[in-house]
Amino acid sequence: MSHTMPRRILCTISILLFAGCAAPVSYTHTHSPTPKGDYVVSPLSDALRELEAGKADKNPILASGHFFDCARLAGAKALEGETGAVALYNHAVARLVESLEQAKSLPWDRAITVGSGEGARTLRGKLEPGAPRVERQYLAADNLSFKGKYAKQAIRPGVGACLVALSPANKDFRKTYDLPKSHAALTAVLRFQNEKDGTLELHDPFEEERIAIAGRNPSLAADFGAPVSMSIAVDRPDKLGLIRLLNPQKYSDTARLMRLQKYDKNRIPVLLVHGLQDTPVTWAPMYLALINDPEIRERYQFWVFSYPSGYPYPYSASLLRKELDGIDKEFPDHKDIVIVGHSMGSLISRLMVTDAGDKLWLNLFGHPPEQTKVSGPSRQLLVDSLIFTHRKNIHRAIFISAPHKGSGYASNWIGRLGSRLVRVPSFLADARDAVSSVMVADSASMVLERAPNSIDTLSPNNRFVKAISAMPIAPGVTYHSIMGDRGKGDTPNSSDGVVPYWSSHLEGAASEKIVPSNHSAHQNPEGIEEVRRILKLNAKVEH
Q1: Could you read off the pLDDT tens digit of each residue along the chain, which spans 543 residues?
Q2: Which of 482, 491, 477 is nearest to 519 (CA)?
């Protein structure tokens, strides 16, 4: 056989196993049509003409005056409950923001004149509380059309124009645990002092469910899905999935914990940990479904841990511990965390709620750390990965499609070939060499033929997998299991196609939910509903 044949086979298998370059979300910029109905008639004819797609571009400041009047007249009727008036008010405010954005004349912290002549109006601007002091671009959400696997809507009907605010790259995102680029949901409201004076206000829909306006208290409109979809479509973070699996060391700087919302000490953090060959994008369907629930939105804030999934998962767990140390320092008053892991992310999550002490070290090396002759960076890597106790501020865990006892795919021919595609980081190779040097004098040590990668550490025969699966979850931690059976209903002989029930089942779980799903049980509607149930239960306990 040709020497190139194995390489060709590997490449073919890699394409079959890992291909998936289609964008999970794509978008187009459209023109939102003027709302139809009996209400949109004279005396708003001038404003409505300007509201027609494209016409506002000719003179945005003049058009803004018409939008101002349209919003004022429609707004008064909207608060009286007149049919169609709310839609027209929201539409007019959105077009006003678009026109002023086009003219680079948004009135934040100042007053401007819109319209001209007898139609001149004075408009002031007011940013939302805690607004970042950076230049942002504002896009009207009703002009954005999304398609794709993760293009899910999360909308709250109400008063106001839903916007997506785009901030420039944040150079300090590692210090603050923000996203590198912000796509925030905001809502614009136009408040009137009289016929010729108004204030354009921005509101954070995560912070406000209702708004006080003209002596009334209507719901504040919100589009929570548009910023998420926009971020996925523009930045394509999903592309990191495969390349970080195959060459983890090259993307080592992408391992980090990130907050999806503004920090709030009164909201319970939910930390989402993705699995093998994946990124935080995989949580989009669940996140949008949960954040659209008023009770969940009020009580929780969401964080994600992103990491190169080619690393052995004990090492990835050590990276998460360091990130949690940092966030504890930055936000020392945060509430106890609910951690949710999918697939290999569940194994990383399990290590956050397990007391290993030096048991794993003894299991793998045969001697306590002080008697094991490994030094330098390799020693520290091994200590960080093998010696740990549970995180005191993680009190509940949800494991989804979790291979607690391993997956046969990791050890069969598919897994073995896939493992050969993963480039071993140099520091792991150094650690393997350091361990091998100890083996000469220490026959009780673990035998390593090569440095392991993530696929190796998912094998049912892996020594670490066997050791950790025998350890109980730390006392005081409540844990739950969710797994798929592909709709066959043949538990306990079931499988999600990747992980069998015997591996994902955990004794002592507070609940176990089997859903008709493949390995992506975290995206299954019943799986998402179970997470919702658990979070609402947790909120009652924490109240």
Answers
A1: 334 334 443 443 444 444 445 789 998 888 777 776 655 544 455 556 555 544 555 788 988 998 998 899 888 777 776 767 888 899 999 999 999 999 999 999 899 999 989 889 999 999 999 898 889 999 999 999 999 999 989 999 999 999 999 998 888 899 999 998 889 999 999 999 999 999 999 999 999 999 988 778 889 999 999 999 999 999 999 999 999 998 999 999 999 999 999 999 999 999 999 999 899 999 999 999 999 999 999 999 999 999 999 888 899 999 999 999 999 999 999 999 999 999 999 999 999 999 999 998 887 777 888 888 777 888 888 889 889 999 999 999 999 999 999 876 655 545 455 566 777 777 777 776 666 655 444 444 444 455 566 676 677 777 888 888 899 999 999 999 999 999 888 888 899 999 999 999 999 999 999 999 999 999 999 999 999 999 999 999 876
A2: 482
Angle, in degrees to the nearest 10, between helices 426-439 and 376-386: 90
Which residues, including other chains, have CB under 8 Å from residue 470's CB and lie 6 or more apart? none
* 3-class SS of residue 39: coil
Question: 438, 445 in Cβ contact below 8 A?
Answer: yes
Residue type, 175: K
Domain with CATH 3.40.50.1820 in the chain: 236-411+454-542
Here the tokens at position 368 are: 């306590």
DSSP letters spanning 513-541 = EEES-SS-GGGSHHHHHHHHHHHHHHHHH
CATH 3.40.50.1820 fits 236-411+454-542, yes or no: yes
Answer yes or no: are the C-beta atoms of 316 and 343 closer than 8 Å.
no
* Contact in structure between 18 and 41 (CB atoms under 8 Å): no
In 10 A of CB 409, how many CB atoms? 20
- The answer to whether 91 and 35 have CB atoms below 8 angstroms apart is yes
Instruction: Say which residue the tokens 């993680």 belong to.
Output: 394
CA–CA separation, 475 vs 115, rounded Å?
67
How large is the C-alpha radius of gyration of the chain?
27
Of 483, 475, 420, 484, which Cα lies nearest the Cα of 452?
Answer: 420
Handedness of CA 244, 248, 252, 257 (dihedral sign): positive
DSSP type of residue 194:
S
Q: Whose structure tokens read 């494991």?
A: 399
Q: At 246, list the tokens.
A: 């195959």
3-state percent breakdown (helix, strand, coil) of the chain, nearest 5: 40, 20, 40
Of the candidates 131, 86, 85, 87, the one whose C-alpha atom is nearest the C-alpha of residue 108 is 131
Spatial separation of the C-alpha atoms in residues 91 and 160, rounded to whole Å:
9
Residue ranges of alpha helices (H) inside 81-213 are 85-102, 173-176
- DSSP-derived letter for residue 127 is P
